[in-house]
Amino acid sequence: MKNINNDDNFQINNLKRKSVYSLSRTYPAYLILILLLISSYFIYDTTKNNVATENKNQFEKSTKSVEIRLQNLLQSDLEILQSMRGLYDMLPTVVRDYFEIYATVPVKSHVSIKSIAYIPYINITQKPEYLYNTYSIGYYYYKIHPEGEREFYFPVQMVVPFDNYNNKLLGFDLATNSITKTAIEKARDENLIVSTPVFNFDLRNNDQTFFVLSPIYSKNSDISNSQDRIKNFVACLALEINSLNFFKEALAGAKSTKTANFPTDSNIIYKFYDLQGANKKVKIYESPNSHLLTQGYKPLLNSVVPFKIADREIALEFYTSPSFQNSMQSSLAYIALAISLLLSFALFGFILAIITSRGRALDLAERMTRSQRRILETTRDIIASMDFNGNWKSMNNASYYVFGYQKDEMLKMNFFDLVIDEKDKENLKSLIANPSSNEVISKLDIQMKKSDGNPIVMNWNLVISFIDKLIYAIGSDVTLEKKEEEESRLRSQQMRLASFFIQESAQAKSLYTIKTNHQLRNSLTSVLGYLQLLDQKLYDNQDEMYSYIKLAEQSSEEIYTYLSDIMDSTMSNENHSVLTLEDSSINLGNLLKEIESAFAQQSSNYGKIILNIPAEADSIIITSNLNYLKESLTDILASYSQNMNENEILFQFERDTLENSIQIQIISKPNQLTSEMINLYKENQDNLIDAIRYDKDDVLFRLAASASKIHTLNGQIVYDTLGINEDNIAIITLSIENIL
Q1: For 371-391, b where at least 16 C-beta lie within 10 A, e where not — what string?
Q2: Percent of residues, the chain, with pLDDT higher than 70
Q3: Are 194 and 174 in contact (CB under 8 A)?
Q4: Distance from C-alpha of 183 to C-alpha of 158, rounded to nearest angstrom
Q5: Nearest to 101 by CA among 77, 119, 74, 83
Q6: Could you report the per-residue pLDDT of 620-648, keeping only the tens digit for each?
Q7: Cα–Cα separations (whole angstroms), residue 569 to 85, 94, 510, 558, 648
Q8: At what angle do helices 626-640 and 588-601 cross, to 10 degrees?
Q9: String of DSSP letters for 306-322
Q10: CB-based contacts of 284, cutoff 8 Å, min separation 6
């Protein structure tokens, strides 16, 4: 053997340590670093885009706020104009008083509305009559200006505010102004609400003004085409609006001309232009900070929004202000890049550190995997997976110990072919067909058959994965445990039934004794009466007769005393072997309705139960124990409806006046299981405790328990079936009153 000195060992160990950091083992860390660096760039780019999107959204929010405020005031002004226009549609003639009443409030409440005017169309021939009519409505000093003869006029006849003739618009001929004339003629010809461009109105000291005009035509006239509209044109209603005040009032968001104080307005700069011609635009309003655009400031964002005043379009130009974006927002993308790079290198160092121990971790994982594989192969529980059709996909070797099939044989079989009860198959298929989530966990006891044909009970823990389209299953053979449970349940049922029979027997014995004592006491009372009469008569041989009568009387008294003592003992509460039942008056109709309601509220192995109760049931009153009678009827109805989706049960009643009893007839729809159990009951009436072994779904137990309780109530019951697929009946006879 070659000797290795300490230096050689050191070199070998050193080589091993270096191999841990070799590229062949650490290349995943470098790949992750590259991916992280790429991710860092994407984070930077995404953050940059998000900041840009946020800026755009904030900018659009600010511009939209301005646009909405302008639109709100414009809509309010147009509603005023339409409201005034509606007067002329409703009334034959709108007199001055009506006009001023309806126009005064809007003019006073809107500082931007300079005036509201009525502007008729007057040709040269109508001028004298027009002036006369105008004087007649109270404008005694009215005159058309500028003066002069013209082919037609558009004079302002009525105006609010009137201001005692100080309103220069009163009498002004708008036909002398080319801008207003063109607008009126357009409104007339096209039947539209029309706006003039913003212009310097010399009548208002060259204030920037625009008119909004609405045409008025003769009532019920034809205005379907331009010629008819010109022919039937009567006048125009006009809003005279001060342009500067309009924009101030709108941007202030209130009926005021004060400067707007909306937070978003400080983030933007805006200028409004009236578009006059193809390439001509006239500035009509600008924000207080608009001077920044002339001082070398370059806005981050800008936009142009078209805005219509009636039929006229103006341009709203918006720009971001210097306060729109703070320094943190502008640097956010670079900050995100720096943080992501720092995290990338930190994660790279962490991954590189743990890769060096990967070999040891793999060895440990391999050992654990081998241990788990040994557990999987040696367990007697089946651990497997299958598809939704029951075809096995994988399985351990436990199938031979459980079913008697080798693993290869078992994998070729179908899960559902091994299930005995069709109901178990339907339950599992229902879980698969009606998922409540992506993964359903269920625990089922299923009866299955082994290779030799013998049945076994398997307890399956199932995980139904609708993502993997697989069922993961762990199955245990619990046949012995189930047999023990069944035996225990059977013994319990037999003991319960035996206790019912004991109570029934004790009650019957007590009832028999009481009835016999009643009869004997009645008979002896009669004998004693006769003997006492004989004792009072005179006979020839009086002494001898008297001695015989005396002896008979003494004997009768002794028997009477003895029977009285027996009866008192039988009826005494100290006799615990006899069940003490408290009787009460029972309305059969109410009792049956209460039972039907209870069935509707509870869930069990029977479905909907409908009781067909005749009206006469409400008038039948019997004296009996309510709890025993209710339990008996409930068990009978449950037994007759076992495993049925719906069952309708008919009740019939017959009174026997001689016996003072009532006969209750119960007729149920066909139920094969119930029919089988009725036949089993009839065949084993003398041995019901042993027959419970063959009971199914506790039907026989409930029938026997119900019969015992009816007998305890001093009643009679008969179960019968008209055939396997025919109706099932039960006849109960009860005393109407307690004979005791």
Answers
A1: eeeeeeeeeebbbbebeeebe
A2: 79
A3: no
A4: 19
A5: 83
A6: 899 888 888 888 899 898 888 888 888 88
A7: 108, 112, 10, 17, 47
A8: 50
A9: EEEETTEEEEEEEEE-T
A10: 198, 208, 243, 247, 272, 273, 274, 314
